[in-house]
Design brief:
This protein is an alpha+beta fold. It folds into 4 domains: about 120 residues, 2-Layer Sandwich (Beta-Lactamase); about 100 residues, Beta-Lactamase; about 90 residues, Helix Hairpins (Orthogonal Bundle), CATH 1.10.287; about 160 residues, Heat Shock Protein 90 (2-Layer Sandwich), CATH 3.30.565. It is built from 14 helices and 17 strands. The protein has a 5-stranded antiparallel sheet with strand order 2-1-5-4-3, with helices on both faces. Helix 9 packs antiparallel against helix 10. The longest helix is centred in the middle third of the chain and has 61 residues. The protein is rod-shaped, with a radius of gyration of 50 Å. About 0% of the residues have low confidence.
Amino acid sequence: MDNKQQAGENQLYKVLSSIREGVTFSDSSGRFYVYNAAMEEITGYSMDEANESPDFISLLYPDPKNRKAALKGIEELKKKKSTREIETVIATKNGQLKNVLVSSSLIDYGGRDLFLSVYRDNTKYRMIENQLMENEWKVRAIFDETYQFIGLTTTDGTLIEANRSALEFSGVQASGVLGKPFWETPWWAHSPQLQGKVRQAVKSAAKGEFVRFEATHLDKDGQLHYVDFSLKPVKNASGKVVYLIPEGRDITERKQMEKNLQNAYVKLKETQAQLIQAEKMEAMGRLASGVAHEVRNPLEILLQGVNYLEEKIPPEEKKMFEIVQMMKNNIKRADKIVRSVLEFSRSGELSLGSEDINSVLESSLELVRYRINTSHIEIIRELSPGLPGILIDKNKIEQVFVNLLLNAIESMPEGGKLSLRSYRSRLKWPRRSAGKKLGDYLGFKNDAVVIEIEDTGCGIPEANKKKLFEPFFTTKTPKEGTGLGLSVSRNIIELHKGIIDIESIAGRGTKARVFLRRS
């Protein structure tokens, strides 16, 4: 070898030594003529160790599968004399496995076929790639398995990702929504107003704003759900918005719980008011009884005195006679009020018997027949025959019906229609009358007989409806009523473990309903 050739080879060795990939020249017997420093670093073996080994290929490829592939590659190079590239796994001197990319070519070097092989250590890249794949799998798992609806859009609102929860909720495939403007996807199709709101939200989020509002979605069965929706901007390192994340959380159950809680609160307040009213009524009953007894005796004495004076007034003293008559009428009116108060205050004093409720209603009607005729009122009967007997105090129930009939008649001074109905009913929901304690309900699904008295009169103003059963509340003049009629009626019905309801629309009439247990 002359100096010039020697210098060329030295230069070649320097170049090969500086290359980061492992480079080898070897013959078909496996002897290496070039084995650079990078190759030593990759394998841990020096060129001398490689050449001294009786079967270096077995050391480099301990896995039979990889070793067979390497030997097959050598044979193919001999036949086809072309470049071959494979990715394989080799073992280093200390037993470490490395992932390498091997590029081999068959070169004619001075009339001899030599194998030029370049080994690139891909171990770190593969580790990073595997880690990235694992991380991507984890992110995808979280993305798909969360119960929340999550997606990804471009800054113009084009949907490019949607998680499994969102897709399954609406029963759509990813191919049917990806690539579409987000506001045109099925989640918003039921509401043009929401579509416009989402479109505006995309514009705001693209500017870097966080947007959040309550929305609704239709599920795959067409049921409406309430959703806590948000749209978040995703920024790159320079602060530019590059993506938007739409996110939705189904809050239908929470909304229902809030509604139930609100309803429970309202019912609690109503019950509290009813309990307070019940205690007031009990106290008033005890007070009224004592006062009424104390007042009746003086009234009796006053009435006796007025009767005596009436007999002694000469016929020509008309003015004095009128005054005495006025005194007498007012004493009787006061006595009537006292009797009503006593009736109101009595509790548990019932003389019960099984009665035909239609007969009781008819007899009550006869007691007010004169008022009906003089008021030009048409009676409409819708009384069901064969109703079961009702265990009631007939006189007290008649008093209730007369009270309700008189109220109906007085609401129709210009005439009208008075409908009387009776029928049997099984209650489909728990009901109670105002003021009763919780334990005194006419229970759920009880078999009851219902009596309705409905008029076409002036109705009851909304402001007065809550006061109907309050003692002494009346819209009549002092000469027309005491305001105790409905209070006494309710007391009587509740003594029978029944219910009395009043429904009314101002200007259109009133319907009174009495529910009584069958015998």
